[in-house]
């Protein structure tokens, strides 16, 4: 074994150890995050691609840790999922988001849809559907304005269990969105099998619409396939007018992205809504 080889192994181990320790630190802090009032929600608007009318908002979780500072969801959500902390976090998100939007719906003329991300770990809990039911009753939020975003990763679970839960949610009047479409393992056939109302095309495809012919064609085909199945399409991460032009030309229904709106704090919702024409 060469000297440099040894050093590399040593370096690699230190790095692994560091990242393991970081994960443990994040995990420990995350367990206290709700109690310590470190979590908050922001809401990103979704607009009709053609009329620019407001459709609704996606709820996004933010964590400002006293010990670690702001930690991005891309970092802490996977740890929350692996440790099961996501079950409590996810319930907190649903509770707070529905409380906030119950008030918004009471006071504003427009009634935006409230979209909430649901982790597969949360979704597979037997208590998931009853928990949603309970929060709906507790908050008085109208289920017809609630949309749950699940990812293709639910498909790794038993199809029967997934279908049962999704049909229960549908029977309650809740909308189902399939999130991050195209990044997971699911085949197109899931679009037909699952009772989906909305399909969200992932930002990675939207990013490459203009440069790459393949993803350009792919986004166009996904939109027409979804429409054939009676599913609405939301394009995520739309940042440029060129992307918007293309999506409009292909009949994409809704746009979510920094071009038309960054996530807002809950306190900013009324101001944005007061500027919306009534639908
Ligand atoms: P996601 O569900 O795909 O959410 C969309 C992400 O794209 C958000 O990142 C949003 O801020 C970002 N985004 C939207 N438009 C643009 C754009 O035009 N440009 C760019 N650069 N980014 C844009 P965020 O808030 O950092 O969330 C990352 C991921 O963390 C989410 O991806 C979702 O998977 C997860 N996440 C966030 N909140 C929750 C939650 O409450 N529960 C669960 N289970 N997951 C969550
Ligand atoms: Ca989402
Ligand atoms: Ca997404
Ligand atoms: Ca994503």
UniProtKB/TrEMBL annotation:
Superkingdom field: Bacteria
Sequence ranges assigned to domain EAL in this UniProt record: 23-277
Keyword annotations from UniProtKB, A to Z: Coiled coil, Membrane, Transmembrane, Transmembrane helix
Keyword Nucleotide-binding recorded: no
Keyword Coiled coil belongs to the record: yes
Full protein name: Diguanylate cyclase (GGDEF) domain-containing protein
């Amino acid at each position: 074994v060469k000297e440099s080889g040894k050093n590399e192994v040593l370096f690699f181990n230190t790095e692994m150890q560091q990242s393991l320790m970081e994960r443990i630190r994040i995990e420990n802090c995350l367990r206290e995050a709700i109690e310590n009032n470190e979590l908050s929600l922001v809401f990103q608007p979704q607009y009709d691609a053609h009329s620019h009318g407001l459709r609704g908002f996606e709820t996004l979780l933010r964590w400002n840790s006293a010990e670690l500072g702001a930690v991005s969801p891309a970092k802490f959500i996977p740890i929350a999922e692996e440790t099961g902390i996501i079950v409590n976090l996810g319930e907190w998100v649903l509770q707070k988001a529905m409380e906030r939007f119950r008030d918004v719906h009471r006071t504003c003329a427009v009634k935006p849809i409230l979209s909430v991300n649901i982790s597969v770990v949360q979704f597979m809990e037997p208590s998931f559907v009853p928990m949603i039911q309970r929060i709906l009753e507790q908050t008085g939020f109208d289920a017809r304005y609630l949309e749950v975003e699940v990812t293709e990763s639910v498909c790794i679970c038993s199809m029967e269990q997934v279908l049962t839960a999704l049909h229960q949610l549908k029977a309650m009047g809740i909308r189902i969105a399939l999130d991050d479409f195209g990044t997971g393992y699911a085949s197109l056939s899931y679009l037909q099998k699952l009772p989906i109302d909305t399909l969200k095309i992932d930002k990675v495809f939207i990013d490459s619409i203009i440069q790459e012919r393949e993803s350009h064609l792919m986004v166009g085909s996904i939109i027409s396939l979804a429409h054939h199945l009676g599913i609405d399409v939301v394009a995520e991460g739309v940042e440029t007018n060129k992307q918007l032009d293309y999506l409009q030309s292909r009949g994409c229904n809704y746009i979510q992205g920094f071009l038309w709106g960054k996530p807002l704090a809950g306190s900013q919702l009324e101001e944005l809504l007061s500027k919306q024409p009534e639908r």
